[in-house]
Amino acid sequence: MWMAYAADPSPLQDFCVAVPDANAAVIVNGKICKNPNMVVADDFLEQGLNKAGNTSNPLGSFVTPVNVNQLPGLNTLGVSLARVDFAPYGINPPHTHPRATEAFLVVEGTLYVGFVTSNPADPAQKNKLFTKYLYPGDVFVFPQGLIHFQFNVGKTNAVAFASFGSQLPGTITIANAVFGSDPPINPDVLAKAFQVEKNIIDYLQAQFWWNIN
Ligand code: GLV
Ligand code: MN
Question: What is the pTM of this model?
Fold first, then answer.
């Protein structure tokens, strides 16, 4: 029997700068390591996070990721980050990161944020919602795997920086995954699961589900 594991490990060396080599025979945590003698300071540098992302989209928000795919020096080190821009009333819709807890720092604007706990042991109880209004300088934590969102409730733009406990946290946007999958989930499945008429599911599946990250 073959088993494969993948995780953000404790590094076994100072660094393992990722090299994009599709033919690599030896890989560490998904990427081949650059020869340490060839590693340069630029392998650990990403620039431009002072620039706002373009929020002209149906959600009015934009995520600029800085994970191992943009910054190869992050490979095997277990952290990454993102800049998140919000137009007035822009939303980062409910989503989860399967591989990371997120610490979210607001630097501009006012955001209403929250997360929901996983299903309680007692089936008679509900999943619990935790919410806050965040202002510049506030940090809020979204625990690994839990559904969370951020909504710009101010009349001005908002800017935040998210840091993650993974070099590649992954994102599942709930509505996109459920109603916008390719191919679509059988609408009978969703009608029963969401306890609504099938025409509501047809309507939702016909929408364009914009992915911002
Ligand atoms: C914010 O929640 C983000 O994942 O960028
Ligand atoms: Mn997030």
Answer: 0.91
Residue nearest atom 3 in ligand 1 by C-alpha distance: 162
Share of the chain above pLDDT 70, in %: 92
> What amino acid occupies position 112?
Y
Please provide residue 44's backbone torsions phi and psi, each rounded to the nearest 5 degrees: -110, 15
Cβ neighbours for 111, distance < 8 A, ≥ 6 positions apart:
86, 133, 134, 150, 151, 152, 153, 154, 158, 160
Question: Which residues, judged by CB distance below 6 Å to any ligand atom, belong to the binding site of ligand 1?
Answer: 63, 82, 84, 92, 102, 148, 150, 162, 213
**Protein residue whose Cα sits closest to atom 4 of ligand 1:** 162
For residues 114 and 131, the answer to whether their CB atoms sit within 8 Å is yes
Task: Determine whether the annotation assigns residue 148 to a binding site.
Answer: yes
Check the annotation: does 102 bind a ligand: yes
**pLDDT tens for each residue of 135-192:** 999 999 999 999 999 999 989 999 999 999 999 999 999 999 999 999 999 999 999 9
Burial (CB count within 10 angstroms: exposed 0-12, middle 13-18, buried 19+), residue 10:
exposed
* Nearest protein CA to atom 1 of ligand 1, as residue: 162
Better pLDDT: 35 or 104: 104
- Residues β-bridged to residue 95: 148, 173
